[in-house]
Design a protein that fits this description.
The protein is mainly alpha-helical. It has helices at residues 5-22, 27-43, 55-77, 84-90, 97-116, 119-130, 135-142, 146-164. It has eight helices and no strands. The longest helix is centred in the middle third of the chain and has 23 residues, at 55-77. The mean pLDDT is 86.
Length: 167
């Protein structure tokens, strides 16, 4: 009996994943075990001499065995699967003290670099980057062409990068 894994995958993969989800596995784990099921069958298909003429049932049995192995392995290891949504609720969003200090230092560097710029260049940069104004609007306010305004903003970016090492 010849097994066309690609055809079997198209016909039964979603069904196997749903069955694994009903067994209480997460979506990611069910998808992984579904793929492992087909890899297992691809690596060692049933013998030709067997009387197994129901590939669907065989695939479900392999997936059940793999899910049982997975659950037993998780119980032994003491690892608990937690959905990403729950992790984001548990994680503390406040930055660490090191991050706060580093960010404040970087902000001081940027402020110092901005203070070194000519006034027109600094204004163009601040209005574009911090004020969200368009280059054309800034150029009109400062009495400059769009091209010259863009050149000033680009100069400001370069100066800040050179002074701080990054942006």
């Amino acid at each position: 009996m010849s097994w066309d894994i690609q055809s079997l995958f198209r016909r039964h993969a979603k069904e196997i994943t749903r069955a694994l989800r009903r067994r209480g596995l997460t979506e990611e784990t069910a998808a992984d075990i579904t793929q492992d099921t087909f890899l297992r069958v691809l690596a060692s298909p049933p013998r030709d001499g067997t009387l197994n003429h129901n590939p669907r049932a065989y695939l479900h049995q392999v997936s059940r065995n793999l899910s049982i192995n997975h659950v037993q392995r998780m119980r032994r290891s003491g690892i608990v699967e937690i959905a990403d949504v729950i992790l984001t609720q548990v994680a503390d969003p406040t930055p660490s003290p090191e991050v706060v200090v580093r960010d404040r230092q970087r902000l001081r560097q940027v402020e110092a670099a901005l203070a070194e710029l000519p006034e027109r260049t600094r204004l163009a940069f601040e209005r574009h980057r911090l004020g969200g104004q368009t280059i054309a609007a800034i150029g009109q306010e400062l009495g400059l062409s769009t091209t010259r305004t863009w050149a000033l903003i680009r100069e400001a970016y370069r100066h800040i990068v050179l002074r701080t090492g990054s942006l």
